[in-house]
Specification:
This protein is mainly alpha-helical. It contains 8 helices and 4 strands, in the order H-H-E-E-E-E-H-H-H-H-H-H. Helix 4 runs parallel beside helix 7, helix 6 packs parallel to helix 8 and helix 7 packs antiparallel against helix 8. The chain starts with 12 loop residues before the first helix and ends in an 8-residue tail after the last helix. InterPro entries: Glutathione-S-Trfase_C_sf, Glutathione_S-Trfase_N, GST_UstS-like_C, Thioredoxin-like_sf.
Length: 236
């Protein structure tokens, strides 16, 4: 009898941005799963440079990576991947409306910074591989500049205050969605901006214990967006 395959839960926000983009454009692709401790060695093997650096200047290797066999192009960084997909496949639906790349880049940086400020609420809910969890814990602690994994959490009153701060910070983002009808930033027209937010919502869905609360914040804005993006959420 074959042993059951482990259930893989997709939760990292940036790979979700790329997955949404690929599905939206209707491109055929296959996912290769990489555990956190293997990210750096995988990128080095593929010859993909790090998309960012740590505060001390050392390389910071991250996912996703897209390798396009039709062009031999290899890309890291979810935003660069989206730009490439629109350039390489112009006949497929466009991720970026005309003359909007700069605005999307600014929006991406803003949303990433907003959610990252409260990522301590998510850490201990991440479904890490038990076999490599200890190494992953040490990696996250080092990235955060703390001594150990146990410092990457807030509980009790401090946790509630942090959660309220998160809700308050999302109010600004909710206002941007209030200018049009429909679930997306541009009403009923989806764009890469929605995949940016959607990637973080996927992270929250799996990792945030208060996901049920978050869905109902701001007149259920985030629940409606996440549900509207389900048609682009296929995991291939």
């Amino acid at each position: 009898m074959n042993s059951p395959q482990p259930i893989i839960l997709c939760f990292a926000p940036n790979p979700w941005k790329a997955r949404y983009a690929l599905n939206f454009k209707g491109l055929t692709y296959r996912t290769e799963w990489v555990d956190l401790p293997e990210v750096a060695s995988t990128l080095k093997r593929l010859g993909v440079p790090p998309s960012r650096t740590f505060s001390d200047g050392s390389p910071f290797y991250t996912l996703p990576i897209v390798e396009d066999p039709s062009t031999s192009e290899k890309l890291g960084d979810s935003f660069d991947i989206a730009l490439y997909l629109d350039k390489a496949y112009p006949d497929a639906p466009r991720l970026f409306p005309p003359s909007s790349v700069g605005l999307h880049a600014s929006f991406n940086a803003h949303v990433d910074a907003l959610f990252s400020r409260f990522v301590i609420l998510f850490f201990h809910g991440m479904p890490l591989d038990p076999e490599t969890a200890e190494v992953s814990h040490a990696t996250f602690a080092a990235r955060a500049g703390v001594k150990g994994w146990d410092e990457l959490t807030v509980t009790g009153k401090a946790g509630q205050i942090t959660l309220e701060g998160f809700k308050s910070a999302l109010t600004e983002l909710a206002k941007l969605h209030s200018y049009t009808e429909g679930p997306f930033l541009e009403g009923n027209t989806v764009s890469y901006a929605d995949f940016i937010v959607g990637g973080w919502l996927q992270f929250a869905k799996v990792s945030l214990p208060e996901w049920g609360e978050l869905q109902k914040w701001h007149e259920a804005r985030w629940e409606r967006l996440q549900l509207a993006l389900e048609k682009y959420a296929k995991v291939a």
